[in-house]
Each structure stands twice: as structure tokens, then as C-alpha cells.
Records
---
Amino acid sequence: MRDMIIGQYYPGSSLIHRLDPRVKLLGTLLYLITVFMIHGPLSFAIVTAFLIAVTAVSHVPVKLMLKSLRGIMVILILTFIFSLFLTQGEVLVKMGPLHITKEGLSSGLYMLMRLSWLVIGASLMTLTTTPGRLTQGLESGLGFLTKFHVPVHETAMMMSIALRFIPILIEEETRIIQAQQSRGADFHTGNALQRVKKLTPILVPMFVSTIRRADELALAMDARCYRGGESRTSLHPLSFSRLDRQAWILLGIYTAAVVICFIFRV
């Protein structure tokens, strides 16, 4: 959990930081879609170049971006192994009943890359956007759903609270682990089942702390007479600037290039 980057904000004044949150939300959605449209080296190069360019413009440290992959390292390894051994095709290496195929190696590498690029791209959005701006952009971008009686404001508020709670829970986890270790607890020895059982002194206090914080937040919002809905206004209304319009054009060019590569399977 300490390696989780999604939900954390990296302060800065880069071009990506100054973009309208609605542009970043739609851009992230388009990027996630195009990641799964990769079917060849050309589309892979376009998506990778786009991610590198956006990361460089955002001025977010590369080490911080790569840190987001630690939390899903097990998933990445298992995905690669399953694709490697369970995909039929031209056999490259035989290992008893198991065999590695050319198609399995290609599929495993592409899937490994897709998941890595997906996590890094999602992390980049939250690292360059405060939870408040993210909520405001989400509520404004999905405002048309209110006509269908969808609680857009409440949903956006819940997402904002969830994102704000991620760093708090990480700090809480670190504090509890240090407190338990100071009392002689050992979380690094024993088999898998024993290690899971040793997590009880961590999970129970975290669960209690999370419920307590949620209750305190609800009481604080109620004491301030918080009411969501159409009557609420924003201190800093969102508006598209010249920079946002230029970002729209670049996103359109990037998406069109990946779609063309997907059609021609390159």
C-alpha cells in the first residue's frame, strides 16, 4: 500500500498541471483505450512516445512514476507467465508438459506493457491534479447525466473523498506497522499462511481507524450544513483556455494515429 501512487498529488506548475481537469480526464480515458488498441510495433511506438512526452512535460520524477508499478508487480509477473505458457502457437522452448511459444512471448510482452502503461498513465493524472480539481472536472464533465437522475455531484464527492483518504491510509498503515514492530511483531518470517495471519494486528486497527475517520467526516459535513446538488457554486469556475484547446488538438491527432494503426494492425 505504501507504493500506491494513485491518489497522491505532486505539486508543480507544468503545462500538464495547468490543464483543465476535464481535458485531463478525457485525455486519460482516450489514452487508456488506445493502450489496449496496440497490435504492432508502430502503435506501440506511438503510445510509448506519447507517454514519455507527457511525462517529460509534467516534470514529475520518473522514479515516482515507476514506483506505482511496485504495487502490481505480482499481477504483472503472473500475467506474463500465463500468457507465456498458455498461448498456442509456434513452439520455441519445451519444458516438460509446458512449452513457450512465439505467440505467447509476444502476447505476454504486450500485455505486460499494456498494464504498466495503463497504471503509469492513470497515476500521472492524479499526480498532476488535486482531488478538488479532479472532482470539479468530473462533476462538470458528467453534468449532463443529471437529466437522467444520476447523482453526479454525490458520485464525484465520494471519489474525491476516496482519493483524499489514500495518502491518509498509507500514513496510518506505516504508523501501525511501526507501532507493532516496536512491540516485537515480526511480519517477514514464516510461510504465506502465517504471514497472512500476522496481518491481523494491522488490518483490525486500520479498519477501526477508517470507520472512525469516516464518522468524523460525516459529522463535520453535517455540522457545516453541507448539502450537495444544483444549488452549490464553485469558487473557481472551470473555463477552457488556449492551452486546453491546443491539448484537444494534440489528443485528437494522437487518437487518430493509434486508431489508424489499429485498423491496419501495425
---
Amino acid sequence: MNKDLTVGNPQKVLWSFCLPLFGSIIFQQLYNIADSLVAGKFIGENALAAVGNSYNVTLIYIAFAFGCNIGCSVIVSQFFGARDFARMKTSVYTTLVASSILCLLLMTIGFLSCKPLLTLMKTQKEIMDDSMLYLNIYIWGLPFLFFYNIATGIFSALGDSRTPFIFLAFSSTANILVDILFVKVFRMGVAGVAWATFLCQGISCMLSVLLVLKRLSAIKITGKAVIFSWEILKRISIIAVPSILQQSFISIGNILIQGCINNFGVSVAAGYSAAVKLNNLVITSFSTIGNGMSNYTAQNIGAKKHSRIKDGFFAGIKLVWTLSVPLCLLYLCFGKNLLLLFMDQSSAKALATGRQFLWILSPFYFAISTKLIADGILRGAGAMKEFMVATFTDLALRVILAFVFSGIMGSATGIWLAWPVGWSIATGISLCFYHRMFSSMKFNR
């Protein structure tokens, strides 16, 4: 069901729109969590480290898929808010065509660069083969990743956050069951984990794309929509490229940090692999709510209802802080229990590493969630320069300080401490940009 985000109480509109997005990303993250959980429990610590090691490379591909998602989503939201349905459809078709070409290019590069990237991360010999195997299977599934993300972006642009939630609820649950089937019953090892994700995401992708096309066909326009437009591709790229660069550089930063972590041994890498999945579950959830803020902002800009954006900002902050309280307490009080889903008590060093990581980072979820809400508004308003500055400040600080702090302290603890420092400073920068933009009424440009 399509929903207009330009009418109604901003808080009620945002909460009803964003909460299903939050639920969707929880299930989306279950794909990666399930891979690590099954690898750690049913294969072993090395398999857990291998999947976690590969995960940092997969984030690069996710960055491109996410960029296509948000670029298409923001532009479609603007046209939907302005009731320009012909160009809205052209935006969708243009994204599908351009993304197909980009996906094929990334697949080619991926197969050629798989081993060099793993070598760059100082991947240990005992997990190199499994890491490569997991990545190669993952790359074959890139078309599913891309088109599924584009489909969910279109649903969000049309104000429908429930349909992606339903798809993900079923597919991620199925992924857990297929993971266990392939690994526990068929004894396929790390390959079974990768093929399970490939299969379940593929089915989810095909169904969601078919439903998007059906939904678009129900929106009547005069004549036929243009299949491809360079002018609209440029508009999409203005949003998508900075988002891709943001996520790509974060992924590259994570690869550099992973290389630093790997210096401390497989057990530390395994503990980090489990804990970072739990952390990313939270951060990605907040990012998705930030994406919802982008859709909300873009629709209201398209409808020229700029005054609703400030109300939406405070509603968004209230939402993410409401979620931050239980998530922070969960990780502080029950982090060990959650980590034991990925490993057993015999992995003492890995368990201690994961607990320390969660204890250091979780109190700062209030800061990073605030940043992501402000970033969502900046992106929805097209203020991509400001968005990029805040993002790269966070990334640069986290990478540089990870090496500096770990070198000074002689342990991985220094790496974990770099996160809250980067988050806190970047949050201040994002808020300054938001305040400056709103005060100068740049929303009216």
C-alpha cells in the first residue's frame, strides 16, 4: 500500500513508517548473523572467523547496492510527493538499467580481486580457503542483492514499509533453517552457509521485484513512461554516488581495521566477528530509520511542505532514543549470552573479546543514532557535501585512532575505543550542518 508522508501528524507518520523499516532490517541482518551463528556453532571457531573476515569485503558490495537503493528512493520520493508519476516510473526503470550494468562490472572485479583483498586484510592461512569460498559464492548472488535493495527502496519511496518487512520476515527465517540444513545435515561447511543465503535472497529478490512492477503498473499515467533518462540518472547519481562512496570507504576502513585486528590472532578475530554482527544489527537498524527520514524529507520537499521537516527530526530522535535504551541494556547485561549463540564456553578469549567490544560501544548508541537521523535529513534534502564531510570524519577518526590506540595500548582494546570517539565528533558535525541548513532555509532551494 502506497502512503503519503506529507500529511498527518509527523510523529505518528514517521513512527508508523519507520518501525516496519526497523523490523525489516532486523530480519535483513539475520542473514549475516545466521551465517556466523551456524558457522561458529556447527563448524568451528575458524569457520566463524572466516565468515566474519569475508563479511568486511561483502560490505563493499552492499555499499553499492545501498547507494542504488537510496539514490532511487530519494528521487522517486520527490516525484511521488510532487505527483509526477511519469517521471517517477522513469526513475525506477533508469535505476534498474544502470544497476544491471554496474552489477555485472562489480561481479567481474569481485572475482579478480577476491584474494588480493583477503591478503590485504592479513587473513590467516588457516581461514583463507574458507574465506575465498564464501566470497566467491556471495559474488554470484550480487544481482539478487542489488535488485532486492532497489525494490525495497522503491517500496519505501512510495511510503510502504510493511511489504519489505513481510518479505524479509519470511526469507530470513527460511535462511536460518536452510543454513542449518546445508551445514548440519548435508555437511557442506562454509559453502553451505553461503549457498543458503544465495538461495533465500534470490527468491526474496524475484518476488519483491515482481510486486514492484505490479505496483507501478497500477499507477496510471498519460502515455508511456520513458525507459531510460540521462537527466534522471544524473539526479539519482547525485544522491547515490556519495552514498556509495560513504559506505565503500566505511567498508575499506573496516578492512583496514580488520587487518589490525587480525594481528592479535584468530580468537580475537572470531570474538570481533560475532560482536560486530550484533553491533551492526543496531547500527544498520538506525541507518535504515535514517533512510526513512530521507524518504520523509524528500516527499515533503517535493510537496513543498518544508515546515514538517523540523518536526520530523525531533520525532526521529525520539524514535531512535526509545530504541537505544533497551538495545544498550541488552548488550551491557546479556552480551555474553548473545555471544554464546555464536560460540561455546571453550572459546574463552573470543568470548571475552566480544563482551569488551559491546561494553565499550553500546553506551554510545544514543550519539550515533542522532547522527544518522540528521544525516537522513541532509541526504533527503540533497545536502550531500555536508553529509559526506560528517561521514568521512567519523571514518577517518575510527581508522586512524584504531591503529594509534592499539599501538599505544598493545591490545585490541585500543581498536574498540576508536569507535565512540569517531561517533561522538561526527555526531556534533552532523547536527551543526542540520542546524545551519534549517536555519538558513536551504530546504527551499
